[in-house]
Design brief:
By secondary structure, the chain is α/β, with parallel strands linked by helices. 25% of the residues lie in helices and 19% in strands. It contains 10 helices and 17 strands. The protein is globular and about 60 Å long.
Length: 430
């Protein structure tokens, strides 16, 4: 059976097209692909046991606290300046993420010229079993589905993955990126089974949130078994999120869109009964040059932005409490996202704090000519879930979790509404 998935954002049209924005759609087979991690390497060796556990060496360098976010998407332009990193990742981190291949990417010329220069030693030899660090960038990537013309690199006609990853780094410029090309169970599991990955973010799903099987089995492994966090994009239409295979499962954080930043209006843009709403419109890197950016909209970008904000929270708490590892590996970290000195944090703790921090915007700013939906003064939770989340939420979440300040409980009507939401999701996805 074939599954039909559509990206939940908008991409720039090529320069010879008119109209500015156009939606992109793709389809993939539902076949479950097993990911193999091989021990041979071009520039080093894996330091993992056969049970896929990993322990940070006792005497590590001064890399400091960190967090790892895994966007699952079309591909990524590793040559864009947005992803450049002057420092190098330590070998223990590369080992922990299963890196078995290092590509030292070119730094001169257009992205096409750089690609051609690196093609023979890099792009033409990457296989589905490879996990690649593109030295000089923040990107560690893999293409487990093996159904792409150029592994990991964004396709010339589609820049969705580049923009999605840009949204993560806009929220947390220090995040380690474990990028997975693909949109299948296998792609999600490639991140779910990496012990150092903290957050998985997906921005695709059935159009109009049609209730068909998607990637929920794999995201359940990531969250329920591996104790990570999953942020999933609701549809760009006001369709119910409960049945959505990405945003609907109760273990996932379903994210809808809200007009903010460059938008003058404060109104809902998508989704119905999500967990939260986040910034719909963002300024993100292009996939087909080195330093260009474009304004684009969709839950595709609200979702990774939220993943980046949560990774910023984790990174700060790990720094505060002396936790120099990542992930929530049940064997080595006891399922704890933060395992520090006299402090611990689970994915449930983080999600609860996110919910408490969310807020409802004014319902009086809607423009009836905008073609969007006003925030209702009654039962706003059906449109925005727990509410809106942006950069302003990060510090209150950190202070709440470290015990320096306590966020108040949400009003009883909001609590009851979201408890009903969770009940519906658990019933649907049981």
């Amino acid at each position: 059976m074939l599954r039909f998935f559509y990206w939940r954002g908008w991409s720039r049209k090529p320069k010879n097209e008119i109209g500015g924005l156009n939606p992109r759609g793709v389809r993939v087979p539902a076949a479950f692909v097993c990911i193999l991690i091989i021990s041979t390497s071009f520039s080093g060796c894996l330091n993992q046991d056969s049970d896929n556990t990993f322990t940070i060496p006792a005497n590590v360098d001064d890399f400091g606290s960190f967090s790892v976010v895994a966007p699952i998407d079309t591909g990524i332009n590793v040559y864009h300046n947005h992803f450049i990193m002057n420092d190098s990742y330590p070998q223990w981190l590369l080992d922990g993420l299963g890196v078995n291949f290092v590509c030292e990417i070119s730094t001169n010329g257009t992205w096409e010229e750089r690609y051609e220069n690196d093609r023979e030693e890099c792009w033409d030899v990457i296989g589905s079993e490879d996990i690649v660090w593109f030295k000089g960038s923040r990107i560690i990537g893999t293409s487990p589905d093996d159904n792409t013309d150029i592994p990991i690199l964004d396709d010339p006609s589609d820049g969705h993955g580049t923009a999605v990853t840009g949204a993560v780094l806009n929220a947390n410029p220090d995040a380690v990126i474990f990028f997975v090309e693909g949109f299948s169970d296998a792609a999600v599991l490639a991140a779910a089974n990496q012990p150092l990955v903290d957050i998985i973010t997906t921005s695709f799903g059935p159009i109009l949130s049609i209730p068909v099987p998607g990637i929920e089995d794999a995201t359940k492994v990531a969250v329920v078994e591996q104790k990570k966090v999953h942020t999933g994009a609701a549809d760009n239409s006001p369709s119910p999120a409960v049945q959505d295979s990405t945003a609907g499962p109760p273990w996932s954080i379903g994210i809808s869109g809200y007009a903010e930043e460059d938008d003058d209006q404060k109104e809902t843009m998508s989704g119905s009964y999500p967990d939260i709403a986040a910034d719909w419109t963002q300024y993100l890197p292009n996939h087909d040059d080195i330093d260009g950016y474009h304004t684009t909209s969709g839950t595709s970008f609200a979702t990774p932005r939220t993943a980046g904000l949560l990774s910023d929270v984790l990174e700060n708490l790990r720094d505060e409490f002396g936790d120099m590892s990542a992930g929530a590996d049940p064997l080595n970290r006891g399922g704890l996202l933060v395992n520090g000195t006299n402090f611990s944090l689970t994915n449930d703790d983080l999600r609860d704090a996110l919910n408490l921090s969310a807020w409802y915007p004014s319902f009086t700013t809607w423009d009836p000519l905008s073609g969007t939906t006003p925030v209702s003064p009654v039962a706003s939770c059906t449109q925005l879930g727990w509410g809106v989340v942006n950069q302003s939420n990060v510090l209150p979440i950190i202070k709440h979790l470290n015990g320096s300040e306590v966020m108040p409980q949400r009003p009883s009507d909001v609590q009851a509404c979201m408890e009903m939401n969770q009940f519906l999701r658990e019933s649907y996805w049981s």
